[in-house]
Amino acid sequence: MGCVTDEREARMRLSQLAEPGDERLGAALAASSACEVLARIEQDDHTLTGVQHYRARLGLAPIGQHDAWADGGGRYLVPGDGEWPTQLDHLGAAAPWGLFVVGAELRLAAARSVAIVGARAATQYGLHVASDLATDLAVRGWAVVSGGAYGIDAAAHRGALAGGGATIAALAFGIDVAYPRGHASLFARIRAEGGTLVSEFAPGCTPTKPRFLLRNRIIAALTRGTLVVEAAHRSGALNTAAVARRLGRPVLVVPGPVTSSMSVGCHRLARGDEPARLVTDASEVIEEVGMIGELADRSDPLRRVRDALDPMALRVLESMPAESAASVADLSVAAGVDAGATGGVLLRLVAAGLVRESSAGFVRVPGAADTVVRAQR
Amino acid sequence: MGCVTDEREARMRLSQLAEPGDERLGAALAASSACEVLARIEQDDHTLTGVQHYRARLGLAPIGQHDAWADGGGRYLVPGDGEWPTQLDHLGAAAPWGLFVVGAELRLAAARSVAIVGARAATQYGLHVASDLATDLAVRGWAVVSGGAYGIDAAAHRGALAGGGATIAALAFGIDVAYPRGHASLFARIRAEGGTLVSEFAPGCTPTKPRFLLRNRIIAALTRGTLVVEAAHRSGALNTAAVARRLGRPVLVVPGPVTSSMSVGCHRLARGDEPARLVTDASEVIEEVGMIGELADRSDPLRRVRDALDPMALRVLESMPAESAASVADLSVAAGVDAGATGGVLLRLVAAGLVRESSAGFVRVPGAADTVVRAQR
To answer: Are A111 and A141 in contact (CB under 8 A)?
Structure first.
C-alpha cells in the first residue's frame, strides 16, 4: 500500500481520526509508519482493531500544515523532531504521536518544568499561593506547565509570566480555540510573552470531558513533578497527580486550612499510601523535583553537581568561558565534541540549571556546578 | 542509715530538692530507695553526683501529704501505685519519680489519650480546629492531654470538656498554682468536670522556662501520640513533638495556610526526615494513634480486635453480659479470674475501647471486639 502523504501529515490526519492516548493506535504506530496505519484505516483493514471507529471520522476535511491555524508560528511536532519533549515517551503506548504547538520552543522549557494544577473554583488563598509559587519558580528559571483553565491554572500561568519565565499551557482542545472564552487574552499573552500552547487535539477541536483527562497525562508527563495547589474531593487535578505518580514523578501538594473544602484533595494526597510531599514555597518545590535529575548518580545521596556529570558533559561545561556567552559551534570546537552532541549536552546542562541560554549564546551559571545536592529519588 | 520518713514522703521531698527529669537522681532512685537517696543528700554524701546542688534547697520547708494543696482530693503518686501511668516509665532515667495529681483518676484516662498542643498566639483558625478536634475525640472516648496554656492548649481542654470527655492538664508548676492567672477558672473547671491536673513540681512551685520543657516530656509520654495544631517556627510544641518521636509515639500535625506563620512549625514537621502525619479530623487522629495499641499483635497488620486479645482478656470480655453493666467482683466470678487481675484486664479493655465504665459498672461496647483494625506501628 503506497503512502498518499508524508509521515507528519499522516500523523496529523490520525490525530483527527482517533482520540489521543488510544493505546491500540499507539501500538500500531510503534510497529509501522503512520502512513501505513492511515492506509489500513482508509482501506478498512479489519486486522487493525477498532478500524471501524477511526473510519467514522474519515469525512472530516484533513488538516494541512499550512492552514490558518499555523499562522504566527503554529507547528506540528512528531517524535524525532528536535523540539519533541522525549519525556512524553514515558507514557508508552499512550504517548502522544504528535503535538500541535504555537509559541516558544517547547523542549527546552519543558525539560526544566513543574506542573501547577488545581481547582477551577479556587479560593483567594489558592489563587494567591499558585501565583506566588509560579512567579518564584519562574525567577529561578523553572517553566510552569498548567492547563489554561480558570482558577489555579490561570493563576499559575499569570504568575510565571509575571516572573518573566516560560509557561506552557497544555490544552484539551485545538491551539486555535479559546476555552474558556474569557481566556482568549490569556492565551494570546502566553504566546506573546515567551510561553507555549500545546495540544494533541487538532485545530478547531472543542473540549469534552474525556479530553480534559487525556490532556492531564500530557501535563504530568511533560514535567519533572506535579504540584496540586487546591483540589476538592473530586478534582481533575487529582487525576493529573495520579498520572505523575504512575510515571514515577514527584507529586507535591500545598496544604491549606482543614476547614476549606478546596484543600480536601491536597490533604488526601498527603495522607495516601504513597503520601504526596507537602511544600510551602518555591525552594521546597525545587528541592523535591530535583536539581540535576537524570545527571545524578542515584547511589550517592550527597555530592557536588560537577561530580555527577558524565565525561562529555563535564568537558563541554569546562570548555565554557567563565563569564561570556559562547555558541554551540564555539563550544563544539573548544570541547572537541561534535556539534550535534554539544547541542544535546547543552540542553541537559540548561535543564540541570548549570548553564543559561541568553540571546548571545550559552552562559555558565556561576557556582552551580559546585552546589552540593541530594540525588533525586 | 535509717530512713526518717516513708518512701512516698521521701520522693515528695526529692521533688523539692531536684528538678524533675534529673537523670543522675533517676539513676540513683533506680539503684536504691528514695529514703536512702534522701539520706545521702542530707548527710552530704559526695559519692552522690551533684549532691551539693540538691543541698542548696534543703532549707525549703518539706511538703506534707496532708497540707492545704491536698484539699479536694490532691494526692502524690509514685511508681507502683495503681493510678500510676506506667507509660511514663518509657522515659527511662528521665522518668518522673512522682506526680502531684488532683481531679479524676489519671491512669485510665491517660491510657487512651492524645496530646493536643500548639501555639499560645494561635489564630482563630487554630483555636477552632483544636477545639473541634478535642470535642470529637472526647465524644469517641479519648482523653485530651495538654499544657493548660493560652491558645491551642486552652482550646483543646475546653473542647474536650464540651464533648463530655476527660482532659488532663500537665502543668509546669504546682497543681495549686494558677498560671496564667486568667486560667484559674479553667483549672477549676477541669477539676470539677472529670478532668485531672498533674505536675511533677511541688505545690507552690512557679513556672520557669526549663520547667515548661520538662513538662513537655510528660505530655508526650502520657499519650498515645502528639498532635500539633499550630506552631510558629520556634515553638514549645515542637519540643513536645520531638519527645514523642524519641519515644516512638506518632507525631501528627494539622495543616494550615502556607501564608500563616502559625502553621510554619506544623508544615516543617510534615516535611522532616521522619515526616509527621497530616490529619484533618478526629477519625484520622484515631486511625494514626491506633485503636488497640498494646493489645495488638504487631506482626499481623489486619485482624479483628477479638483475635488480638490474650486469653485472660478474652475470658473477661466474653463473661460480660451483652447489655447490662457488671462489677469487677461479678466479672471476677463469671470469668474465673482473680479480682486483682480482672481489674487490670478491665483497665486494658477500657483503654482499648472495648469496654466502657459507667456508674453502674463495666459495660461491653457493642461490636467493638469485631472491628477489623490495623496494628499500631
So the answer is: no
Chain A within 8 Å of B271 (Cβ-Cβ)? yes
Mean pLDDT of A256-276: 96
C-alpha distances in Å from residue B149, one per residue of A27, A67, A301: 65, 71, 42
The 3-state DSSP class for residue B85 equals coil
Indicate the residue of B257, B264, B279 with minimum beta-carbon distance to A256: B257
B128 reaches A (C-beta below 8 A): yes
- pTM for the complete prediction? 0.79
Pick from B127, B133, B207, B128: nearest CA to B170 = B207
Give the Å distances, CA to CA, from A204 to A63, A150, A200, A345, B206: 10, 20, 12, 37, 76
Is A284 in contact with B271 (Cβ distance < 8 A)?
Answer: yes
Other C-beta atoms within 10 Å of A49: how many? 11
Query: First and final CA of chain B: distance in angstroms?
Result: 47
Contact A47/A232 with Cβ under 8 angstroms?
no
Asked if A135 contacts A160 with a C-beta cutoff of 8 angstroms, the reply is yes
Residue-range domains of chain A with CATH: 1-59 (no CATH), 88-289 (3.40.50.450), 293-374 (1.10.10.10)
B residues 239-258 near A, CB within 8 Å?
254-258
Query: Does B206 contact A at CB distance below 8 Å?
Result: no
- Rounded to two decimals, the ipTM of the complex is 0.75
> pLDDT tier at A31 (50, 70, 90 boundaries)?
very high
